[in-house]
Amino acid sequence: MKKTIQVTPTRSGLWQDTDVTYAQVPGWLGHATLDLKLTVMRPFEHANQALPVIFWFGGGGWMAVDHNVHLPNLVDFVRAGFVVVSVVYRNSNQAIWPAPLVDAKSAIRYMKAHAATYQIDPNRIVVMGESAGGHLASMVAVTNGLSQFDEGQYLDYTSEVQAAVPWYGVVNLLSAKQGSRTNDFDFVYRNILGADPETHADLVAQADPQHFVTATTVPFLLLHGTDDEVVPIEDSRQFYQCLTAKGVTADLIELEHAQHMDEQFMQPEIVTLIVDFLRRQLAI
């Protein structure tokens, strides 16, 4: 069959830049160089317009990070007019805390330095992630302006962000370990801290976003499932109370019967909820 049809474009095509090296850090016990990567997705139709950007940090218990695994689920945010940047950060086999935080801030500075290339608005930055990546997103947001976590290149640019959206994120590492309904992941907290959280309160505090919250902390949208057996929902509830007690704009959305990494979080309803929140907070 030969046929000629007329197609009226109703949505933009998408660009994807995969495995962009944003930083180089010591690897293999300090005897080699480790390239840290990110992937950028952006729409065709806004090629001459600076867009708000969502930095995504995947989960994996700080044991393994695949920055491309969730890209199909993040396309909805690109369709909504955001650039999405999915970031690799060092896992606990490569470095202990605060290395992931240093990496996340390096990625943000890199993208700000290359804002024109990737058509991003450096003043409308969102951090979002799941589980361990949700914890990282929270820590990036609450440490705005704290220069001790900015290391490496592009230090003329800030790593400050304007909003955070952690999905079932770890909050306090000791509370997460003790409050979990399973013991299967107890070891991950020692691995990322480099010490047992029960006996190192100082290290736990350094990785607890509640420890850094102030009245100037950026807006938060917290998402958590009521049936999460890995990261206790009570920790997100406590974090929400901490934020609001300081006068921070914050919403907590509890997904009824949702478990850890549940597909409920990938539904259009949740995308719309997140996009609406970000448009309000970023004045888009």
TrEMBL record:
Keyword Cell membrane among UniProt keywords: no
SUPFAM superfamilies for this protein: alpha/beta-Hydrolases
All residue ranges annotated as the BD-FAE-like domain in the record: 46-242
GO molecular function terms noted in the UniProt entry: hydrolase activity
Pfam families recorded: BD-FAE
Keyword terms of this UniProt record: Hydrolase
PANTHER family on file: AB HYDROLASE SUPERFAMILY PROTEIN C4A8.06C, ALPHA_BETA HYDROLASE
Entry protein name: Esterase/lipase
Annotated source species: Levilactobacillus brevis (strain ATCC 367 / BCRC 12310 / CIP 105137 / JCM 1170 / LMG 11437 / NCIMB 947 / NCTC 947) (Lactobacillus brevis)
Organismal lineage: Bacteria, Bacillati, Bacillota, Bacilli, Lactobacillales
